[in-house]
Amino acid sequence: MEAGLIAALAVGGSALALWHRRVQRGFAAERAAVFDDCRALFDETVTEDCGVDYPRLSGRYQGASFELQPLLDHIGYRKVPSLWLSLTLRTPLPLAGTFDVLMRPQNIEFWSASAQLEERIDLPADWPVHHIAKVSPAGWRPPLERLRDGLGALAEDPPFKELLVSPRGVRLVYRLSGVQRAHYLVLRSLLPENTRIAPDMLVPLLDAALNVASALKVTSLEKAA
Length: 225
Prior knowledge:
By secondary structure, the protein is an alpha+beta fold.
């Protein structure tokens, strides 16, 4: 009787291990394909394999240099993980400091630069509520009106999470999806609900980053014209 039970448990354990390996291989394939639907938006694309993490894509959109990095956030206690997209436009900007605004902070945003900046500032009433805005160096202030104009409707979009601007460019962070809830709660699977980045979701983010950069590059003489 005991021998039969032990044999059954061994067979069950082997089957579970086989199933788990199959799921992990499927997850790896989905991660590798995350840019398949949107890659055609870019010229000169390069995809970097980041090991167990999602790949990183670099390319040119409307002549500008972008970098896209999906980030899987699974450190929140009793929270279904989210898949975020960090989108960076690399372009020199006429700024003397760094500005970051983080929407609906939960103190678990491991990818955010907010904690490293020196001074918290208040934003005008036309910015969404429930945020932390910070700058470095302390005492420096960015052109907030131009930043708000550049963001446009994206600032009110619930999945929009963060804007960072510095002399090196613009970064946006946006929630792509959550993971499949039932699989996560039962099996702790981290397979997202949406496994590929759709072009119609990505284009407004790319355009918003370009608009923010253009707004910051406008001189006072051009603004008055």
